[in-house]
């Protein structure tokens, strides 16, 4: 009898030692011995006591693929002295902060992919990432208009300089997206270099120049476009960024409002404005020649949707 009691006591102590102090910190997505850190634990009523604190949700839960979204970490509270570092997709770190109410904030970075990416949060300057969640990276064309800068009459922006298209251009934004009294309006460009489908093929996303500096953060900016100087007119695709004037020009991964990416017709060289049709024809001929030099990849890709409406509805595969 004594031996049986001792065995039961030993098993009980072993169980308590194994389960005592079980936490969701660094265990999100797992089912532990005495409780769960799996997303289903809420509906099953089996969550560990610190589930919401460690396996965090955010508001908003998504933002532009270009980054710059300031979002709040929900149901988790930090010391005012906490040094917040947010890690996206296990590779890109940004510096966050703690607000007056003790809530942690993260700034989303430039992400070269759309969809859900992992998010880890550290409160000790990156020594230990003990909180985890997810972040939804969205192409600017799919992003809610409340969370991006709007190009007023976007068709005019993309056809600027063609016959009968000119004058001032205007953009607007929600002033709460940039926590600053003064902002810079920056132009960023995208291009690809090297031989397509070779190991030297590279995509480049780069700050080009500022359209305005120390502009009041009043939610609106208009300007009369000029031909880009210093060779920047070779950049044909890009986006505008509204960010605090306190940051250096072109600083990466800071709080900002981005416009959609668009054809930069409004800053192209004089030859485009003099003869946009001829300029476009040359581009088409160059593209056709490049296509003829590329390998046949049609057999390797999924079928195209039959209509534009189908493509827009199928957000998982097309944008």
From TrEMBL:
SUPFAM superfamilies membership: E set domains, Somatomedin B domain
Naturally occurring in which organism (per UniProt): Xenoophorus captivus
Pfam families: AMOP, Somatomedin_B
Cited InterPro entries: AMOP_dom, Epithelial_Barrier/Signaling, Ig-like_fold, Ig_E-set, Somatomedin_B-like_dom_sf, Somatomedin_B_dom
Keyword Disulfide bond annotated: yes
Signal peptide range: 1-21
UniProt-annotated location(s): Membrane
Domain SMB residues, every copy: 20-59
Keyword Membrane: yes
Keywords: Disulfide bond, Membrane, Signal, Transmembrane, Transmembrane helix
Domain of life: Eukaryota
Residue ranges annotated for the AMOP domain, each copy included: 276-319
Name under which the protein is recorded: SMB domain-containing protein
């Amino acid at each position: 009898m004594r031996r049986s009691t001792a065995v039961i006591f030993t098993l009980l102590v072993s169980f308590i030692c194994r389960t005592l102090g079980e936490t969701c910190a660094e265990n999100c997505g797992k089912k532990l011995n005495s409780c769960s850190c799996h997303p289903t634990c809420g509906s099953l009523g089996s969550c560990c006591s610190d589930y919401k604190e460690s396996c965090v949700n955010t508001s908003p839960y998504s933002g532009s693929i270009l980054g710059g979204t300031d979002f709040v970490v929900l149901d988790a509270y930090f010391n005012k002295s906490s040094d917040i570092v947010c890690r996206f997709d296990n590779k890109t770190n940004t510096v966050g902060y703690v607000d007056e109410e003790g809530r942690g904030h993260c700034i989303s970075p430039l992400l070269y992919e759309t969809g859900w990416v992992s998010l880890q949060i550290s409160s000790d300057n990156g020594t230990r990432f003990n909180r985890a969640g997810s972040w939804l990276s969205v192409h600017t064309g799919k992003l809610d208009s409340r969370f991006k800068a709007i190009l007023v009459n976007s068709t005019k922006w993309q056809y600027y300089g063609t016959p009968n298209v000119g004058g001032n251009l205007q953009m607007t934004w929600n002033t709460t997206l940039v926590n600053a009294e003064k902002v810079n309006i920056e132009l960023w460009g995208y291009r690809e270099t090297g031989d397509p489908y070779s190991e030297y093929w590279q995509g480049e996303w780069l700050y080009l120049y500022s359209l305005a500096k120390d502009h009041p953060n009043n939610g609106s900016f208009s300007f009369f476009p000029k031909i880009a100087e210093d060779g920047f007119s070779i950049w044909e695709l890009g986006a505008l960024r509204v960010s605090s004037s306190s940051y250096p020009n072109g600083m990466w991964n800071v709080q900002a409002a981005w416009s959609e990416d668009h054809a930069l017709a409004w800053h192209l060289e004089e030859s485009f404005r003099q003869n946009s049709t001829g300029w476009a024809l040359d581009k088409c001929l160059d593209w056709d020649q490049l296509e003829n030099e590329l390998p046949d990849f049609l057999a390797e890709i999924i079928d195209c949707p039959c209509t534009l409406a189908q493509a827009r509805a199928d957000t998982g595969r097309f944008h």
